[in-house]
Prior knowledge:
CATH topology of the largest domain: Rossmann fold
CATH superfamily of the largest domain: Glucose-6-phosphate isomerase like protein, domain 1
Low-confidence stretches: none
Number of domains: 2
Oligomer: single chain
Structural class: alpha/beta
CATH class of the largest domain: Alpha Beta
Strand order of the largest sheet: 1-10-9-7-8
Strand content: 5-15%
Helix content: 40-55%
Amino acid sequence: MIxxxxxxxxxxxxxxxxxxxxxxxxxxxxxxxxxxGEGKDFLGWTSLPSEMQNSDxxxxxxxxxxxxxxxxxxxxxxxxxxxxxxxRAVIEALQSSFPDAQHGKPIQVVYAGHHMSEDYMAELxxxxxxxxxxxxxxxxxxxxxxxxxxxxxLRQHLENKYGKPEARKRIIAITxxxxxxxKTLAGNEGYKSYVVPDxxxxxxxxxxxxxxxxxxxxxxxxxxxLKGAAxxxxxxxxxxxxxxxxxxxxAATRNALYNIGKxxxxxxNYQPRLHYFTEWWKQLFGESEGxxxxxxxxxxxxxxxxxxSMGQYIQQGLRIIxxxxxxxxxxxxxxxxxxxxxxxxxxxxxxxxxxxxVNKQAELGTILAHTEGGVPNMKVSVPELNAYYLGELxxxxxxxxxxxxxxxxxxxxxxxxxxAYKNNMFALLKxxxxxxxxxxxxxxx
Length: 445
């Protein structure tokens, strides 16, 4: 199981303060599992891993993924926010850094509908001209602007390329069970469809078909992913002491640091393949906690790369930061640094060592330097980067986020603030029904 080490925060916050939060944490657990707290209608994610394991739905997803891989060399995932970040996080963590070199040349997964760049979409359509492809469109409503535009363009391209009957076989809709524009279209066209559960919000949806289908299409084991998540589900909220429960301890520690003037948390990784896991984590915590003019700001860096850009600020900038390092203990590959006769670079002192050992010492040295520079550090140790431990990690962060939001006294399952930009955009574009807003916003320009 993944482990959480908080010893390098205890020079900043007393352990007694964390122990004093134990009763509060247990009360929050009760609200979560009895579904009586704020946002109680969106707590379906808590039991997803155990419910989904070995289910007919998972078997169907695996079969669909197999069919897609047989007919397509590219799979387009259309979605924004939680509709694509979880899947992308897992896929990019598990695939080779250079997928074309991966054994068997797996299907390529690409993404659309997560922004509105005209150049990107034009380039994607050009690329797909010469590729066999299929797509999934993921949207609860079917009217979210970014994915809806992308789907219009890609659906037209697909129909022009293959004809409508074949295009229908290459489109999979993941949407609401009963209502919405995408649900209606999928029914009218006969698209293969999966349901976004009503009681699971987008940023918690990676263990639903939203995340599971793309991950399975990419060729990774969703059974192992769910198995790992289920192991963490079975452990959390079972009355363990706070020091023995990683989700509870993480939630308590980050809030204790917040209370002493550390409102910025930086997730640190030393593996480039974890970049999109950090992006998923940023949405999970940013959208869950940033309310009522409170909340911990989630940021991310990839070390050692960003030590040569952000390292200076972290070491000596404003002391408002704490770090959480996601540390992968066992690399998948082995590479030894060679001896060099001339030694012009002065590196013979590490010749014969594995590159992972050098990376680990950089990790430890950075943690020590940052802690001594006034930046508290937590470390999440992951035995190895595989589907099982990613499942554990996903559920760990989901539960910790729910607990942390309740400690902050905000609803961790809504996102009322994201409507402001949409309303302004609709008014500027003169969307029907926004006439008064259009007049008002024009006066501000």
